[in-house]
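Reopening this ticket.

The earlier resolution said the output was attached, but the attachment link was broken on my side. Pasting everything inline this time so it's all in one place.
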Amino acid sequence: MRTDIEALPSDGQAEVRIVAASPETARAVAEVLRHCFAGTEQRSYPAPGGGTRLHLTVDTETAAGPARSWLTSSRSPVGSRTQTHADET
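Inline output:
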């Protein structure tokens, strides 16, 4: 169970965490997200085992063209639950 409580992002925003073996790989994924969503500057941290963990906040309310149609069609019903990763519980 997690002992630190993180504040939820504002409505319409999502916190994204990318974990990769190299900083270049993490940055490449973040760049793709920036082409789809407005976002904040990324923050980089060392990951366990020598990898890189990259955090950024994206604004899902201002999605780019292809992401906008995908977001509209993929919205989950209100009250649906998402799966939690083992290391995030």
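Reporter confirms the inline version is readable. The beta strands are 13-20, 37-39, 43-46, 52-63. The first strand starts at residue 13 and ends at 20.
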